[in-house]
Amino acid sequence: MESEEKNLKLKELQLGNAEALAEVYQSYRAEFLQWMISNFGCVEQDAKDIYQNTILTFSEKIRNGQISNLNSSLKSYIFGIGKKKFLEHRRSTYRQRRIQDPTMGQEEATEVDKREYEAQLELVERSLELLGEPCRSLLELYYFHNMSMDEISAQLRYKNRNTTKNLKYKCMLRLQKIFKNEWQKKQNEL
Fold first, then answer.
1. What is the pLDDT of residues 59-102, one digit of tens each?
2. Is the domain of 87 the same as that of 124?
3. Is residue 13 within 8 Å of residue 59, measured between CB atoms?
4. How far apart are CA 54 and CA 83, in angstroms?
5. Residues of the chain with pLDDT under 50
6. Residue pair 74/6 in contact by the 8 Å Cβ criterion
C-alpha cells in the first residue's frame, strides 16, 4: 500500500501539483530540522535553509524527470538529498569564513571562527576524557602522535594491527556518540 501511495504522490509531483509538493514539504519539515540539529550539530536557521534547498532540489529532480521511480521512501530520498546539502553548506561556510590578509599573505580565521574552534576543541577534550581508557590512549597515539597501527599495537601490546584497527574504529564510534551528546547538552544550555 505504501508503495502505491508513494508512486501516486510521485505522479502528482511530476504533473506539477503544488498541493502535493506543499504536503511533502510539511510532512517532513519538523523531523528533518530535528535530524539536522541532533545528528549534524546544525543551528536551526541553517537547518531551515538546508531544508529549503533540499526541497527545491527534490522538486527540480521531479520536474526534470530524474525521478520516475524510487526504491526508497520519499522521506529517505529527501533526507539523503538533505545530507548532501548539509555537506555542501558546511564546505561553503568554511570557505566563506576564511579571510585573506593581504599584508601577511596568510589566511586568518575570524574571531567567531576562533571562538567556535576553541569551543569545539573543549568539547573534543571533554569527550576524550569521558571516553576513558584504552580508547583515549589509542586515539591520541594515532591522531595526535601520528603513530602507525603497527607502532600502536606494539606500544599498547595488542595482538596485531587488525585488532588495533578494529578497536580504533569502535573507539571512534564511541567518541562520536559522546561528542554528539556533549554537543547537544551545550546547545540546550544556550
1. 888 888 777 677 778 888 899 899 888 888 887 766 555 544 44
2. no
3. yes
4. 9
5. 1, 99-107
6. yes
Task: Give which of 91, 89, 58 is closest to 76, Cα–Cα.
Answer: 58
Domain count of the fold of the chain: 2
Residues 6+ apart with CB under 8 A from 149: 142, 161, 164, 165, 168
Question: In angstroms, rounded to a whole number, what is the distance separating the alpha carbons of residues 25 and 40?
Answer: 21
Q: The domain containing residue 69 runs over which residues?
A: 2-97
Domain with residue 9: its CATH number is 1.10.1740
Quickly tell me which residue has 509531483 as its cell: 13
Q: What residue has cell string 529532480? A: 61
CB-based contacts of 72: which residues, under 8 Å, 6+ apart? 80
Q: Which helix (H) or strand (E) holds 90?
A: helix 74-97
Residue 178: count of CB within 10 angstroms of its CB: 20
